[in-house]
Amino acid sequence: MGFPKDFFWGAASAAHQVEGAYLEDGKGLGIWDALAGGRVAHNENGNTACDHYHHYKEDVALMKDLGLKHYRFSVSWPRVMPDGTGRVNEKGLDFYRALVDELGAAGIEPMVTLFHWNLPYALHQQGGWKNPAIIEWFAGYVEVVTRALSGRVRYWMTLNEPQCFAGLGYEVGEHAPFQQEPESLPAVTRNVLLAHGRAVQEIRRNAQQTPHIGMAPTGSLYMPRDESPAAVEEARQLCFSALGGSFSIAWWCDAPYLGSFPEDVCRRLGVKELFSPGELAQIHQPLDFFGFNLYHAVGLPVPGSAYDSTRYQGSPRTSMDWPVVPEALYWGAKFLTERYKLPLLITENGMGSNDWVMLDGQVHDPQRIDYLHRYLRELRRAVDAGFPVMGYTYWSIMDNFEWAKGYDQRFGLVYVDYRTQKRTCKDSYYWYRDLIASNGANLL
Ligand code: NOJ
Predict the structure, then answer these.
(1) What 3-state DSSP class applies to 238?
(2) Is residue 2 part of a domain?
């Protein structure tokens, strides 16, 4: 069987990680601009990053050459609305209008993430995601972006990884706004999910062409210890339990996609009920696809074996220290489509490594090619098994600012020299190009 003819092969980025131009043309400060000082490896920041703001034409030309069917990128809220609400920065919108025009001319479908973490600092000062007013602040911003871009954009994602910006941002304190306030999680969860629902309404209300809407969450995916029905069922139960804390899948996905909120999450949050039935209905707006960022999975102990499969002892790891678990794509596709009953778009998958330009002027990254090959074979297995998978998005089109880890983690298909902004296509870029051209037929 293999991948369907119209399969979406893509690559992704996010505004703060690639754009730079952090104070140009009227952009306001986001929380990663304002608060990250001293909290990022080597004291790095996203001020210039890949300078994609000025290099977007060159970058889109590389995407075209690669044969991308879609490009997933995010719009920067503080670039478009410097204070978060009210004043609209037309020059900021112009950048995205020019980008989607360029993509259109290259025959690449734009997929827009509306919130990929860089909250306007002005809104953070008013409580950010802890303040229920953010539901309408976000709706106002979504209206502005939808009106400006929906002539060209059909695919929308409301939020990227609430697990991270809520969990790492307000509970663990590793990501902006760097708060360690687990007690704020009930309020943050309410505001994030209600904002998602309102955003979906705003997209549908303002879109100039029928929109396709989803989210881009992530979460702890548990692997069955073997393929027996009992083991598969056990893994499925764990996948949708509150075991992963704020990284659990059901915490953020059940309300938008199923209209319910898990009781075990309520227990964890110490509340009897987080949403009224009316609020759940407000969050549970019709959605068109199920996006998911999927890099690895959690292993389960095998009874009677001395090998520690929960920690993937001694197994291959990427430079992020993440285990290489290709089967995550198969089990993810199975569990997520069976539960949420929508076509699955892998909105991110990829690997960080310490790539460099070698003496021959090329970037040889055989590990990434092997990684891609293994993961995509598992995705094909899922497609062959009949699970509705609509596309795959490699993270990332180019090396970029990996949040608190700075620039050491290179995820790109395209290498970026941050001194010169010179782009060099890695070996994996050419491998992925062949893969797209053959629609996956070159997978062993
Ligand atoms: C998750 C995030 O969406 C993205 O911003 C990040 O760079 C990658 N995954 C890799 O960690």
Answers:
(1) helix
(2) no
CA–CA distance, 361 with 81 (Å, rounded to integer): 41
Q: What is the separation of C-alpha 75 from the centre of its chain, rounded to a whole number of angstroms?
A: 13
The domain tally of the chain equals 1
**Known active-site residue 202:** no
Domain that includes residue 54, residue range: 8-437
Per-residue pLDDT reduced to its tens digit, 175-191: 999 999 999 999 999 99
Amino acid letter, 278: G
The answer to whether 69 and 9 are in contact (CB under 8 A) is yes
Q: Residue 406 falls within a domain, yes or no? A: yes
The per-residue pLDDT for 371 is 98
Q: Considering the candidates 161, 171, 202, 402, report the single residue annotated as catalytic.
A: 161
Residue 323 lies in a domain: yes
pLDDT tens column, 261-274: 999 999 999 999 99
Ligand 1 pocket member 365 (CB < 6 A): no
Å from CA of 402 to ligand 1 middle:
7
231 in a domain, yes or no? yes
Residue 117 Cα, ligand 1 centroid: separation in angstroms? 10
* CATH at residue 70: 3.20.20.80
